[in-house]
Amino acid sequence: MKNSNLSLGIKRLPYSRMLKSEMADFVEKTIGIFEAHDPESVMVNPMFNLLLAKTSDIKLLRLSFGIDTERLRENKLKAEMMLQISAFKLKVRMLTRSNLALDLHVVQNAINSHLRLLNKCRNDKELNQKIAGFHDLMLTNLELQESIIEFDLSTEVEKIVVAYTNLTDASQKRVKLLSKRPAIDTKAITKGMVKAIDNLFKAIEVSHLVSTVNETGEEINFVPLIDELNQLSEMYHRSISIRDANNKRKAMQEEESSKEDTPDANGLTVDDDSGVASVSSFRATDAPAGSISDIELPTDSDNDESDKSIDHEKPFELG
Known about the structure:
Blueprint: H1 20-37, H2 45-52, H3 55-62, H4 69-98, H5 105-115, H6 124-140, H7 142-150, H8 154-179, H9 186-210, H10 223-260, E1 268-270, E2 277-279, H11 300-309
Antiparallel strand pairs: 1-2
């Protein structure tokens, strides 16, 4: 006799939105629920065995390497190197106050070629190449070596070289340690688990529709098993929805916070907590639409006089 309740099915989860730990836990609980009911169905059990074969992959999804301490150490060494470079550039700048610019032109050319605007580097690789270029120049340019010795800059340069060497050693050590990590494609593992779970659920649903029998010839009631699996899916679906809602709310709060920090059309930024308004820089081109006629633009003679008093700033350099 066929089951009259043909609408009973197992709810599927949005697996692509699940965390690795959630997927591992969901598979474990699904296996536990199935083993507790033990339907002994010739149609369902082969699909369950395929899922059971994924047990070893669950341990891989649990695997967490934690904080990359070598990366933290590398960042610390890079910060120390940048400080040494800043100290070297500052001393050269101070020397230009008391010496002719021509006397330091070799050193300044080296700085402009390799140590200028390091904060503009797009990544650590580009930064390392700039420092390496300065190091190579120090080894090959005799005129630069003589200038470094003449102006007593050897100590500062040596500190830069030591800091760069330490950073390079730390980077090589990190690469070596990362190479020893097991090559795990968690996306492929998760995809295999999703396929095994879906095949098991389909087998249970089909077996429920055709009212299969067990090895002893008795009809198997899949309703309790389906109800429990549905309850498990509902719990995980609720957790995923809550996490998505929290992430969305956090993103909206960050967006609103960035808007509050943006000056309004009058050049005022209001602090909601204190009620204090701070005036930001205001230019004639920042005037609201329709109010440009109220602004008195300077004449050519005014521009000539103002240009004489303006001290044009030099391009910013990382000090």
